[in-house]
Amino acid sequence: MRIRKRVVVLILLALSTLATAALYADFQSGYYSPTGAASLAQEAPPKLSLDGTYEVGVYPIYPPIFPSGDGAQEVKAYCNTCHSARYITTQPPLPAAVWEAEVNKMANTYGASIPDDAKQKIIQYLQTHFTPETRKKY
Amino acid sequence: MTTISRRMLLSSIGAGGAGLVLANWLGGHELAQQPRASRNVPSFTGPGANSFWNSVGPVVNEPQKAPLILLTDRPVQLETPRHYFSSTFTPTEAFYVRWHLDGIPNAVDLKEWRLRVEGSVQKPLTLSLPDLLTKFRSVSVAAVNQCSGNSRSRLQPRVAGGQWGNGAMGNALWTGVKLRDILNAAGVKSGSVEVQFQGLDTGKGPEGFGSNKFMKSLGLDNPVLDECIVAYSMNGEQLPMLNGFPVRLVVPGFFATYWMKSLTWIRVLDKSDDNFWMKTAYRIPDTPRGTTTPEDVQTGKVKTVPINRMPVRSFLISPDGSTKIPAEFPVTLRGIAFSGAGRVTKVEVSEDGARSWRVAKLGEDFGAYSFRTWEMLWTPSRPGTYQVAVRASDEKGNTQPDEPVWNPGGYLWNRSERQEFVVGSAA
Predict the structure, then answer these.
(1) Which of A33, B120, B169, B205 is the Cys-Cys partner for B268 at CB 3.0 to 4.6 Å?
(2) Does this complex have an ipTM over 0.90?
(3) pTM across the whole model
(4) Given an 8 Å threshold on Cβ–Cβ distance, is A82 in contact with B245?
């Protein structure tokens, strides 16, 4: 009787060991994968002076990727005067009429001096690359 | 004794568990999924609404700031990532940034810099930072600074402008001098109507255009003037350059367009300010909630007024929906709420897409214009996809509606927020 009980306990212990091993197989581990994601550099603290000047150095520019083509040069030359061209690439796709209105706003409301032919080229460029119909992944 | 241990053993495995385990062992059970590869947000959103909590730009380093989301680099516009809003006060280094003109200060010589009070005053003043620190009484206020265009990327149809997600806002403890104390020291002449504010930023546009100078004004009879502070301190530290060092205007309850950064000129006017930034920009339709339609704008039907107080808003901050929640797990939902009209009195949460609501517990009250934290214990009963909604009410009886807003400037968005949660099986 005692022996039978011991056998049952041993069998159950063996089963529980197997069960534990099988349970541990129910998760995954050790997968790593290389990615193309850029990392941010860690910056060192700057050297500071004792005088009255409180400065932060220069502000970084992060040039956007721009589609090449007719008008790209004009965009670079004129739109960059007051603001970076990132103002264009961060917009949602906008209808052709909205782009025309935006460029006219820059000239008329904000006083940007853009020659008429350059203005037309800029409008066409924006309509070629940045409308819901034409916008690609930039 | 043996009976007990056998029972313990059996119960520790569990009858069903033992069977399953045995099946796994015999049948070579595998997890249903392979590990997920990480995925970046797209480089732009639209023409539909931006579905992400934040805007979709890359995260970048800028002077004195934690890595923030880039909207534009010149002038600098940076958005605060969602997780920074889990506390009442937004960390200074993570506070969002929005400048209008590209000539923003890189350095300020405090030996030369003076705050000038001029125009229609009896005694023009030039005040150094130590003057402000020692010659005036210091006051503090906890107040939310929110860009007029916060959440602009939600509008349908989309409008041009900074495509902010929800992170063009922050709450800080601002310390400085009451604007009224400075105006009283200068002595406002009778017949004056407005007070104009200008900072150190300049643009490359021609003189007389909005692209040359950024200036904002408030009426001398506006009650908010009594609450304005010329702040030299933000959360107990000097202002970061990008947030308006050495002093900025704090206009509690009002949108950030009035909170002039690197404030250097306080100009009392004897006539209404007709500069571009008051007369043309930052105007909202004079309609309930400032909403209109593209058709009404087109036909010129829309009368506008300068943007002013912020409508009531609330946000669910954590968890952020990026992690699956096990069914029957009691999870604490946390977030913030605020209103430009006054104290937040109630935050409600819905687990069924705004059909039924439960009242959340509010956190400590830091005053009428501060973020107020809230939390609510939520136990999703069964696996599925849940649309959790949140809405706030303020002491003036305003409650966040479920209807969107549209206006050509992309201002005043305050629809109740939604967060989708995936609740997985766990048994």
Answers:
(1) B120
(2) no
(3) 0.90
(4) no
